[in-house]
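Hello,

Our lab assistant flagged a job as stuck in the queue for most of the afternoon. It eventually completed. Since we weren't sure the result was trustworthy after the delay, we are filing this so someone can double-check. Below is the sequence as submitted and the structure that was eventually returned. Let us know if re-running is recommended.
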Amino acid sequence: MTAHSTAGVAPVPGGDPGTEGGAAAAAARRTADGFRSAAFPWYGLDGAFTGPRRLLQVGTAADGTVQHGAINHGDEPSIRNEATGVEKERFAVVVTVAASPLRRSGDGTGVLDATSVSTAAWLAGSGLLAHTWPPQLDHALRDDWLDQQTETAFALADDLTGEEWSALALPVDGAPTPFHYRESEFGWVLAGTAGNGCHIGAYGRGMSAYGLAFTAIEDLAPYL
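-- returned structure --
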């Protein structure tokens, strides 16, 4: 695959690396560079979504190859203790995963795991949990809860034909595309194949998944 065009990407403002603002600017540059270096297209919500958009992070293999990344739409996800009565955020995070078989790493030192729709479902499910704090738990117990729920999310992602999942068709680049979809008290998760060398996962809350549509991103500038 050839690198996807990101023409028109705006430069990230600089700053003194020794200051908090400078460190944040440097981190933003690294994130943008990671998205630019991917050899596959990124997906986000289509033009019907008019709210804020921002890059979250990329995931790389041991050899530095970008394998997946996440882009947020709407409010910035944060861990909130819902016992405080704070209104839930409205956000949808789209995860793009490069479709690939089991293969040797670029430096020949190991094997890179195969990626599939289950990979996208797992990344989306664990992403949702990372921004969830059940009201009945205190800070000391959340890590144990998160470990348990993450194992459950992994098992669910490995069984996309199970009863926990339902079928949902959503547009991808204008074409109706089948997705696996599930809801929980913490939000929703979905996963499918874009048909462009990519799998798409998504998670969110406060926004309905049923009205979403995905499209390949031609310009990363609105996300910076």
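-- support follow-up --
The delay was a queue issue, not a problem with the job. The result is valid. DSSP finds three helices and eleven strands in the chain. Residues 41-223 form one domain.
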